[in-house]
Amino acid sequence: MTSVEISNISVDRSWNGNYVHMMLRSLQKKGRIKVCGSLQYGTQYARQFVPIITKEQYAAELIMSKDIGKESTAAMMVAMINEKNEEDGEELIQQLEKIIEELKSKESKEK
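Structure (tokenized):
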């Protein structure tokens, strides 16, 4: 997205153009986004940005930055599963089991 596109979709917020540019520069310095091209708007060009990390990676980094220990991380996962209804919870458990098996397989290959 470009700063123009961000400004257009954030009409419910009071972000002016300067704030959007400042936010984009900050995200770029932090390594969260990168420039991937440019688009012409009238006589000017706007840089396009793409995220470098996924929203899941960002959420994990945010949680881990709170110094949550291993036990708390597991308890948090259980709490997230409990927040889902029973059907979604079962699907989530299956997904987690698959991820665990993949991690175990990867770990055994590395040894």
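The mean pLDDT is 83. The helical segments are 3-9, 17-29, 55-64, 70-83, 86-110.
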